[in-house]
Amino acid sequence: MIWLLRHGDAYDPEPGQSDAERPLTQKGERQARAAGLALAKLGVSIDTCLASPRVRARDTALLACEALGVAPRIEPALAGGRFDAEALAAGHGEHVLLVGHEPDFSRAVHELTGAQAQMKKGGLAGCEPGLLHVLLRPAELRAIAG
After folding, report:
1. Contact 110, 117 (CB under 8 A)
2. Burial class of residue 56 (count of CB atoms within 10 Å of its CB; 0-12, 13-18, 19+)
3. 15-29, pLDDT tens digit by residue?
4. Do residues 50 and 96 make contact, with C-beta atoms less than 8 angstroms apart?
5. What domains lie within the chain, and their CATH numbers?
6. Alpha-carbon dihedral angle through residues 21, 59, 103, 81, given to the nearest 10 degrees
7. pTM (2 decimals)?
8. Is 134 helix (H, G, I), strand (E, B) or coil?
9. Strand order in the sheet with 2-6
């Protein structure tokens, strides 16, 4: 199964700061931790986590993976633009967590499943080719996480 986690809420860029350097807000940090805790409470064992190198996505992956016992790896293909989720996940285990951005992740959900979805900041989708198993908003992840 491919899990797609959109980065949590991030600050607007400071003057002179690149978009790639934007950090998570406190809300974004809570969203990231809740996503990891929710996956753990659901009994999902992540084999590999691949994350965009952009600060907000990298930090989302680090915080979410604390509850999952896996160390995220940086994947430049997730930094923005089209990517093939199935090809990225191939060979990385049964459950692969990808952490990245919009509109890429909504497009990936559609390409994998045919479903039209809008990934919220801190939202999570669980997919496999031809099937959308679950699409969870941050509030639902928070409720599962407890």
Report:
1. yes
2. buried
3. 888 999 999 999 999
4. yes
5. 2-10+20-145 (3.40.50.1240)
6. 60
7. 0.97
8. strand
9. 73-74, 48-51, 96-100, 2-6, 124-128, 131-136
